[in-house]
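Retro notes (design track)

What went well: tokenization of the new backbones is finally stable.
What didn't: we kept losing track of which sequence belonged to which structure.
Fix going forward: every design gets posted as structure first, then sequence, in one message. First example under the new rule, 108 residues:
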């Protein structure tokens, strides 16, 4: 049975993590856009290769790209963990609603 105290904890968690959730979600989108900008700068500044295709391959092999995807992985991981925790708290609220509705109908 889900107590009212547990319900309050779920609601508080959701309220307390709204801003963090928004920042992480925005961070994921930002990193996707940043990848394009970094790639463009790398290709423009790459003098080792002649063709654009070879410059693009050099970008994907570069340490700068590896660092970027590692940063992206970390942000996505944090965002996913937070999403999962928020989903769990929403589930607690939904189950509490169902139990309360059943209790009012005297089913439980």
């Amino acid at each position: 049975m889900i107590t009212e105290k547990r319900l309050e904890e779920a609601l508080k968690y959701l309220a307390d993590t709204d801003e963090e959730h928004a920042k992480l979600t925005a961070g994921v989108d930002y990193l996707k856009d940043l990848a394009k900008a970094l790639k463009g700068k790398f290709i423009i500044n790459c003098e080792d290769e002649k063709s654009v295709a070879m410059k693009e391959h050099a970008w994907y092999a570069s340490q700068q790209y590896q660092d970027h995807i590692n940063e992206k992985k970390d942000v996505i991981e944090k965002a996913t963990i937070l999403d999962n925790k928020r989903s769990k708290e929403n589930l607690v609220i939904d189950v509490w609603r169902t139990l309360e509705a059943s209790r009012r109908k005297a089913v439980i």
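Added context from the reviewer: Residues 26 and 79 are 10 Å apart (CA to CA).
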